[in-house]
Amino acid sequence: MNQQEINEIIDYINKKYAENVPRPVRFVVRKKVKMIEKFDPSEMPVSLRNCSVEQYIDIFKNALRDGSIKL
């Protein structure tokens, strides 16, 4: 992936975050970002590493809808 593509993704995330996340929630999210810094993708199951972003989002939405994800 080239730098332009990476920048495009980062810009998209920043835009969505700014538009959709209230300021008090941003404070909490910043605190939780430390968890992402410690995240090791190699620890993910193979099934997750092999699915597309679209598949992941669909799986996540369906799991939220049917209550199988505990948040």
Automatic annotation (TrEMBL):
It comes from the Archaea. This is Uncharacterized protein. It comes from Candidatus Nitrosarchaeum limnium BG20.
